[in-house]
Amino acid sequence: MSTFQAPKGTYDLIPPNSATYLAVREAISVPLRNSGYGYIETPGFENVELFARGVGESTDIVTKEMYAFETKGGDKLALRPEGTASVLRAALEANLHKGGNLPVKLWYSGSYYRYERPQKGRYRHFSQVGAEAIGAEDPALDAELIILAHQAYRSLGLRDFRILLNSLGDKECRPVYRAALQDFLRGLQLDEDTRRRIEINPLRVLDDKREAVQEQLIGAPMLRDYLCEACKTYHEQVRELLTAAGVAFEDDPKLVRGLDYYTRTTFEFVHDGLGSQSAVGGGGRYDGLSEMIGGPALPSVGWALGVDRTVLALEAEGITLDIPAATAVYAVPLGEEARRVLFGKVTELRRAGVATDFAYGGKGLKNAMKSANRSGARLALVAGERDLAEGVVQLKDLVSGEQTAIALDAVVDEVRRALG
Ligand code: AMP
């Protein structure tokens, strides 16, 4: 142990468990890469105003959870708390929306930062894989994204997740609903903070987890009763496309999510084995966001799936991913001359694409063989002075224990053959 520890609310990914994280990121991105989404990477920090405007001044993410700071040069920046605002900012900056080839479909993977109260499944540094489809209003696009997230989770073997679906309306019907909801909420017994929220973002009050609040919300006006014809038709089409694709979902009229920019389709993936931090991913349509950050009208839709919580979901379902051992061959030299010769063979094998490791540090045979077994390798290459004198090395199958001498100058071919 050193003097230092990982900061509160963070943890390190270390082998062998880190391999699961990589595999989860990979599994989530495969369906996206297979569906026309291109990879995008944006900086870990942005102008703080991008998030204030893009995510919303009234959200917890912006008011309480942002790592905001001023640089020595006087720039006001923030570590990114989420991906959508940055990706849209980058797409606009690069004029990706101007080629006439809409929607612009992008996927990303990275670290995000929120100053939250840490608990299992809720960290101050976490990892998301996300996707955004920018510049098209088409229910098939909303459905595509939900289907791809569903496919990703299924490919990992997850079963105990549910998809919650709602529509938040658009700039026609949402204001009418908002006013009706505000009228209703103003008549309730609520604390100062919540009363203030009624005026800034009343929909968020529906999301309040406290029982005393939820009890009073019975009978609150529901957005689905206020949706305009266009929003209703749009939502119905999304639902039909999901059903046709065999993707089950639950209508959740109270689903609002914690970010201000959502319009129409909103969804969340929840996992039933995770306790209070049950949302493994979520997203929705954000038709007004581009204009909110100074861009043209670009109706868009996207999601972000949490890698940390997806790994917890795998654990909750008892799923161990089938991750191939990193090392296929482990070389064990006995003596100085063998070290020199075998190290050369290791380099040759690696250049031929065979995952190979080497017993460093002059270990004795017993210790070296222990390391070989621990590495997960299928084969060991062992050589001592006498082997070298005969121009051979010993090829040992670490599963069967069988050992054969192979010619030194045929190591790559023989190893390949033994590995099948
Ligand atoms: P959000 O951007 O809040 O919609 O979050 C999308 C997903 O990111 C969530 O469903 C979680 O899986 C993950 N996530 C968000 N915040 C955290 C956090 N503090 N710790 C771990 N995962 C998180």
TrEMBL record:
Where does the protein end up? Cytoplasm
Q: What is its main location?
A: cytoplasm
Q: What class of enzyme is it?
A: ligase
What would you give as a GO molecular function for this chain, any one? histidine-tRNA ligase activity
Q: Which reaction does it catalyse?
A: tRNA(His) + L-histidine + ATP = L-histidyl-tRNA(His) + AMP + diphosphate + H(+)
Q: What is its EC number?
A: 6.1.1.21
| Annotated Aminoacyl-transfer RNA synthetases class-II family profile domain residues | 1-324
Q: Which InterPro entries match?
A: aa-tRNA-synth_II, aa-tRNA-synth_II/BPL/LPL, Anticodon-bd, Anticodon-bd_dom_sf, His-tRNA-ligase, HisRS-like_core, HisRS/HisZ, HisRS_anticodon
Which UniProt keywords are given for this protein, alphabetically ordered?
A: Aminoacyl-tRNA synthetase, ATP-binding, Cytoplasm, Ligase, Nucleotide-binding, Protein biosynthesis
Any Pfam family from its record, for instance, is: tRNA-synt_His
The protein's matches in HAMAP family, at most eight in alphabetical order, are given as: His_tRNA_synth
Quote the subunit structure annotation.
Homodimer.
Per the record, the similarity remark reads: Belongs to the class-II aminoacyl-tRNA synthetase family.
Protein's recorded name: Histidine--tRNA ligase
The top of its lineage is: Bacteria, Bacillati, Actinomycetota, Actinomycetes, Kitasatosporales
